[in-house]
C-alpha cells in the first residue's frame, strides 16, 4: 500500500507516515466513526448533563486527569511544540486521545499567539477531554486496522447513534439507549489510549502501560485496569495483595446503583481513574482537582516497599537497597517512562551526625544530582542522542523501570571510618510526574514541581550488622 510521508522540520526526526487509502479517517490517530461520517460537535452531550442521573460517576470524573486531558497546560505546551516542529503532523496524533471528540469533529484549531509555544482550542464538550461521551460512545477497537496491529494511538471506533455502552447487560435508562459492551469490562478498552506508538516505520512504543499489564501476574490472574483505577485506593491495595479482581473481594463495600432509578448492584465502579499525577489538577484549580491529587498521593504511597542491608566488611561496606513494586499492575513508573521519575534518596550518617554518603537529594534548583539512581527509561533519537520530545524519540537506550510484582536492587559502596562503630541509614523513594526542567521549558509561569515521598525506611547499624 502506498505511503504518504509527512515531512518534518527537524532532520533528527523519524518520518511520520500515514497510509494512503487507509480506512482510518483521522491520521495519524487510529480513531474512526462507525457511521463513517464527520459528526457535528452538537451530537455529543456535556458531561454535566450526565451528572443528573449519574452523580457518583460525575463526581469521580470531575477533576480527574481524564477530565482535564485537553486543557492540561503541560500537555498543551508540548503539543504546541509538536505542531510547529512537525508541521501539524502531531495534531491528530495527540488529539486522538486527549480530545477524541475534537478530533473526530475536526474542531481542534491551533492558535500561535496563545501560550508560550502557541495553544489549541476546540468547541463545547470536546474541551472536556476524556469525557462520558467519549468512553460510552465506544463500540469497538480498531486494533486490527492499525499499521502495527496493536492497540494504541486512540484505536477506538465511536458511534453517534446516541446509545451509551457499558458493562451491564440488563441496564435500562429513561434518557438514552443502553447497550451492553464486553469491551468496557476489559483492559483492552484502556489499551487504545494507554499504548502510544511513534507512527514511524518502526512504530516505537513511547508509552506501553497496557503491554506492561499484559505481561504481568495481574493479567494472568484476570485483574483488569478497572479493578485498580475505578475503585478507591484501599480497594486497589486489596486487589494487589489478594491478587483477585475487585468483584471477588470479600466485603468490598462497592455496591450501589449505577444510575438514578437503577437496580441495586453488588459492585459499581467509581470514575476517578486515579494514577500518579498529583500536580496538574491543583495547578489548574479545577473543581475536584485537590481531591484527585490527594488520592494520587495516597495511591503512590501504597505502591512500593523498600528493603536495605549492609554487606561486605567493616573496611569495605556496601549498602544494598531493594525497591519492590508491590501494588502497581504495570511498571513503576509507567506511562511516558522517559519523563516520569522514581528515584532513591539515600543518606548515611555516623553516630555524631556526620554524613558518610548522600545521594538523590534535590538541589536548590529542585533538580537531581548526577549520581542519583532514577528508575526511568533513557530516550534517544535516531542518532543515539538524548531526546525527550515524543515525536523525536526513536528508542530507549536504557530501560530501568520496575515491572509489576518485580524488584530492583541497587548497591551503594561507602567508607566507614575506623573510629565509627555505629551509623544510621535513611532511604526514601520519591516520585515526580516530570523533572523541573520540563516545567521550566513548557510552562509560562514558574512552578516548583513537587516530589512525593512514596515510602521510606531508617535503620541503625553496628559495623555491617543491623542493630
Automatic annotation (TrEMBL):
InterPro entries: Cyt_c-552/4 (IPR023155), Multihaem_cyt_sf (IPR036280). This is Cytochrome c. Keywords: Signal. Residues 49-137 form the Cytochrome c-552/4 domain. It comes from the Bacteria. It comes from Shewanella carassii. It holds the Pfam family Cytochrome_C554. Residues 1-20 form the signal peptide. Gene3D superfamilies: Flavocytochrome C3, Chain A.
Amino acid at each position: 500500500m502506498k505511503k504518504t510521508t509527512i515531512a518534518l522540520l527537524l532532520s533528527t526526526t523519524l518520518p511520520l507516515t500515514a497510509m494512503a487509502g487507509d480506512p482510518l479517517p483521522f491520521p495519524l490517530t487510529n480513531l474512526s466513526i462507525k457511521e463513517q461520517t464527520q459528526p457535528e460537535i452538537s451530537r455529543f452531550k456535556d458531561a454535566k448533563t450526565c451528572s443528573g442521573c449519574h452523580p457518583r460517576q460525575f463526581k469521580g470524573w470531575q477533576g480527574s486527569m481524564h477530565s482535564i486531558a485537553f486543557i492540561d497546560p503541560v500537555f498543551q505546551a508540548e503539543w504546541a511544540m509538536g505542531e510547529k516542529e512537525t508541521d501539524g503532523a502531531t495534531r491528530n496524533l495527540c488529539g486522538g486521545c486527549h480530545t477524541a471528540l475534537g478530533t473526530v469533529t475536526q474542531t481542534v484549531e491551533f492558535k500561535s499567539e496563545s501560550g508560550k509555544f502557541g495553544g489549541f482550542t476546540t468547541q463545547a464538550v470536546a474541551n472536556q477531554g476524556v469525557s462520558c461521551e467519549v468512553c460510552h460512545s465506544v463500540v469497538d477497537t480498531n486494533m486490527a486496522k492499525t499499521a502495527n496491529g496493536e492497540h494504541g494511538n486512540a484505536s477506538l471506533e465511536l458511534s453517534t447513534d446516541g446509545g451509551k455502552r457499558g458493562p451491564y447487560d440488563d441496564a435500562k435508562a429513561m434518557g438514552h439507549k443502553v447497550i451492553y459492551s464486553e469491551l468496557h469490562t476489559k483492559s483492552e478498552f484502556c489499551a487504545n489510549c494507554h499504548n502510544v506508538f511513534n507512527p514511524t516505520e518502526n512504530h516505537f512504543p513511547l508509552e506501553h502501560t497496557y503491554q506492561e499489564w499484559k505481561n504481568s501476574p495481574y493479567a494472568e490472574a484476570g485483574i483488569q485496569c478497572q479493578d485498580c483505577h475505578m475503585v478507591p485506593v484501599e480497594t486497589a491495595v486489596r486487589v494487589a495483595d489478594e491478587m483477585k479482581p475487585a468483584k471477588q473481594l470479600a466485603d468490598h463495600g462497592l455496591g450501589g446503583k449505577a444510575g438514578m432509578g437503577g437496580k441495586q448492584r453488588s459492585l459499581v465502579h467509581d470514575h476517578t481513574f486515579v494514577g500518579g499525577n498529583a500536580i496538574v489538577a491543583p495547578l489548574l484549580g479545577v473543581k475536584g482537582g485537590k481531591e484527585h491529587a490527594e488520592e494520587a498521593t495516597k495511591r503512590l504511597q501504597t505502591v512500593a516497599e523498600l528493603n536495605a542491608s549492609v554487606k561486605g566488611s567493616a573496611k569495605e561496606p556496601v549498602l544494598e537497597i531493594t525497591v519492590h513494586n508491590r501494588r502497581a499492575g504495570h511498571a513503576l513508573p509507567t506511562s511516558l517512562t522517559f519523563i516520569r521519575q522514581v528515584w532513591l534518596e539515600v543518606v548515611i550518617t555516623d553516630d555524631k551526625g556526620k554524613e558518610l554518603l548522600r545521594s538523590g537529594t534535590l538541589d536548590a534548583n529542585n533538580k537531581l544530582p548526577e549520581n542519583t539512581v532514577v528508575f526511568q527509561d533513557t530516550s534517544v533519537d535516531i542518532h543515539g542522542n538524548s531526546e525527550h520530545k515524543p515525536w523525536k524519540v526513536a528508542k530507549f537506550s536504557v530501560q530501568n523501570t520496575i515491572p509489576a510484582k518485580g524488584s530492583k536492587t541497587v548497591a551503594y559502596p561507602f567508607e566507614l571510618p575506623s573510629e565509627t562503630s555505629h551509623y544510621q541509614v535513611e532511604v526514601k523513594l520519591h516520585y515526580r510526574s516530570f523533572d523541573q526542567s520540563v516545567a521550566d521549558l513548557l510552562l509560562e509561569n514558574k512552578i516548583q514541581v513537587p516530589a512525593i515521598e512514596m515510602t521510606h525506611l531508617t535503620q541503625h547499624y553496628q559495623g555491617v550488622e543491623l542493630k
